[in-house]
Amino acid sequence: MSNVTEFILLGLTQDPDLQKLLFIVCSIIYLLTLAGNMIISVTIFISPALATPMYFFLSYLSIIDGFYSSSIAPKMIYNMISEKSSISFNGCMIQLFAEHFFAGAEIILLVSMAYDRYIAICKPLHYMTIMRRSMCVSLVVAAGIVGFVHGMIQTTFIAQLPFCGPNTINHFICDLIPLLELVCTDTHTLGPLIAMNSGSLCLLSFCMLIASYVVILHSLRKHSSEGRRKALSTCASHVSVVVLFFVPCSYLYVRPMTSFPIDKIVSVFYTLVTPLLNPLIYTFRNEEVKKVLKKLLGQVRSNKD
């Protein structure tokens, strides 16, 4: 039975001056994240030139990044200027579910994007047959289902554990490790089982992605120099996003369930910085997206004139 009805989040720092500075910085990053991901998703949805499976997945990646950041950033930013940085027990469980729901969905979506590049490069003659619209929709739906199941497993396990006090979380979010440290029961067996759900999903997916790109690189030897350049440019964007997402994920969940001081910095990176960098990476490294954005910007300016 849990006696705790709310948790106190200590946040990133207890220094009032530093909190004000972080409030401004994190607010700017969050607003840029929302704007960047919205621009990418809307551009892809309204542009016929980007009506391909790769950009179809990219549009949903931008949507997921926006929701993922929104499940954490607003509460974190508000607590920086609030006198009492608290969150209800139910609110904490909702945040935990949302975090792992969107993270799980993003993992499967990144795997789907790698599969799309594999088919495009290694089986180009069958690309349109395999990556038809129904297949792309099915992969996006599968990402949502896996994310939902993953989030429910994590939340269900944690919600059933007894919290008797204290209720102070040395973090700015409700996550597995900080919550497990507050449970008033032995978690030496249960802790690794709960972490395994996140760690195994993260590690297995990362290994699949690495294996797929090894095959892709091997296949590129048969392509022309121009074909290799274009394929490598596209794959480089995806690999950059994969590294930005999976390195922090692996650090946090593929290890013993113990908190370290650097955990907060890593969490800030994958909850705020990574969702901001994803649209920038795909925009600046992708000529087609840049051309469409310039064209749309030109149309907006001409309409104003």
UniProtKB/TrEMBL annotation:
Parts of the chain that traverse the membrane: 21-47, 54-73, 93-115, 136-153, 198-220, 232-253, 265-284
Entry's localization field: Cell membrane; Membrane
InterPro entries the UniProt entry points to: GPCR_Rhodpsn (IPR000276), GPCR_Rhodpsn_7TM (IPR017452), Olfact_rcpt (IPR000725), Olfactory_Receptors (IPR050427)
One GO cellular component, as annotated: plasma membrane
Family per record: Belongs to the G-protein coupled receptor 1 family.
Domain of life: Eukaryota
Keywords: Cell membrane, G-protein coupled receptor, Membrane, Olfaction, Receptor, Sensory transduction, Transducer, Transmembrane, Transmembrane helix
Location of the G-protein coupled receptors family 1 profile domain: 36-282
Protein name, UniProt field: Olfactory receptor
